[in-house]
Amino acid sequence: MPPVLRAEDVSFAYPGLALFSRLNLELGPGEVRVLVGPSGSGKTTLVHLLAGILTPDRGTVYWDAHPISRWPEEQRVRLRKRYLGLVFQHHYLLPELTALENAALPGWILGRPDPDRARRLLHRVGLAGKEGLKPEHLSGGERQRVAVARALFSRPRLLLADEPTGALDRQNAGGVLDLMLALAEEAGTAVLLATHDERLVAGLPGWRIERGGLVSLGS
Ligand SMILES: Nc1ncnc2c1ncn2[C@@H]1O[C@H](COP(=O)(O)OP(=O)(O)O)[C@@H](O)[C@H]1O
Ligand SMILES: [Mg+2]
Known about the structure:
- By secondary structure, the chain is of the alpha/beta class.
- It has a single domain, classed as 3-Layer(aba) Sandwich (Rossmann fold).
- It has helices at 43-50, 73-83, 99-109, 115-124, 140-152, 170-187; strands at 5-14, 17-27, 32-36, 58-63, 84-87, 158-162, 190-195, 206-210, 213-216.
- Strands 5-6-7-3-8-9 form a 6-stranded mixed beta sheet, sandwiched between helices.
- Magnesium ion (MG) binds next to helix 1.
């Protein structure tokens, strides 16, 4: 089976700022890996390259055998909808929709609505009884739990999470992280989790960004 995610010799620079030089990375089915590095080291940029939001200057990003970084935008967006879940520091829930509607959104987008799955996921993340509330009536931790449920709703092959707990206090952060990893495991989803907070992810295998490349944290 090909890796779920592979970056091959990826180089990337912003104007006047070379960030990555011939970087390589591979994530197998269901694997969980962390990406750590201090603020400004390039975690968000790398996540965007791996998500096909940014395009590398050189090298290729593959999802399974698909060289998505060489694909036209339209084709990439189409595959992304069913292949990739994303969680960011800020939840990006739709303010007019309830928790249930937000969690179920990927199903509607894919033409496979399944409110029961959304309901089960919300129970799973501790939001039973709050399905009908809009984001403004949820706490920060609760909103992020809805965002996690939404990202894993369609059992994507790959979840990219960029500082998913960055806006939460430590107790909430640990809870949301544990739930995210548990739901990903149940869905068979591979996870790359980017964070500046090495203490939060101590013991998990992965990489640290150093001098434009990746240093392995052991596996
Ligand atoms: N759109 C952009 N244009 C130019 N420089 C950028 C842009 N986005 C980020 N950078 C710079 O790239 C570096 C890495 O940023 P980023 O990927 O956000 O790091 P991290 O997520 O690890 O904090 C920083 O020096 C940042 O200022
Ligand atoms: Mg960042």
